[in-house]
Amino acid sequence: MTSTALVYGLAISGEAVARALHDRGVRVLVADDAPNDSKAAVAASFGAELVAKPDAATIDTLVSSVDIVCPAPGVPETHAVIDAAIRLGRSIRSEIDLAYEWEQQRLGGPRPMLAVTGTDGKTTTTMMAAAMLRCAGLKVAAVGNTEVPLIAALDTDVDAFVVECSSFRLNWIDNFRSEASVWLNLAEDHQNWHVSMPAYEQSKARMWRHNRPTDVAVDKVEGQMELYSSTGRLEDTITKEVGNVDSGAKTFVDLKYSIIGSQSVKPRFWVLYNGGKEKPIQFEIDGPSWNF
Prior knowledge:
Elements: E1 4-8, H1 12-23, E2 27-32, H2 37-45, E3 50-52, H3 56-64, E4 68-71, H4 80-87, E5 91-92, H5 95-104, E6 113-117, H6 122-135, E7 140-144, H7 150-153, E8 160-164, H8 167-170, E9 180-183, H9 197-205, E10 216-218, E11 221-222, E12 224-228, E13 236-243, E14 250-257, E15 268-273, E16 279-284
Parallel strand pairs: 1-2, 1-4, 2-3, 4-5, 6-8, 6-9, 7-8, 9-10, 12-14
Antiparallel strand pairs: 11-12, 13-14, 15-16
Helix pairs in contact: 3-4
């Protein structure tokens, strides 16, 4: 059980994490590389002192005195606090990961989540998905990389969450998963935060690290069609020829899949493809023979 946490970075997400931890009885230490009076007042509101611009030695001291380290999304993976946490064996927890863990413990059961990631278009897609769910009669919170962190929305009266997942939030997840998810696109970006482009892509892929066979995952469309299975583990590829019933055109689809657990598990694949009109297609894989 966590008794002490270091929250590094006290902007919107960091403040929400610090308050949520404090409300759950955790002793919170806070530090920030860009301190100001407002952040100091926030820290004081839950009995903490803001450590301003700590050097490497101070960071080591802070990290060694806590159980977990919660870096704000703006803290890059090259930061000294990340190095210290890894070197000193402290767990690194992101905002959406803590929020997901606590949501699973909710009286009445956890509410479903839809996750959205990609280099561009995340906020627009998050808002559109939330609007679609509201039109279906659900009370929905659009959270994550928006103005409202997921962790700050847990106590609201909603039926579901649409979570905008930046690579910064996904990079340190241990538990987070969503019943449905979409990866919109990928382009070179945030190379001042990640150590490399492959590291950036791997952070995005962590969205599917804990997916279950019943979850739905929709992948980006770039050139050849790609589908990621509900397992999120991409090991093999089948190429399937799909006829477009509107135009008669043929589209070749790469189905990337892996078999998990029992051979009787039937992962499902969903995709939207372009060929004439956009048209939704659903594939159901029938097990080891992979018949369509």
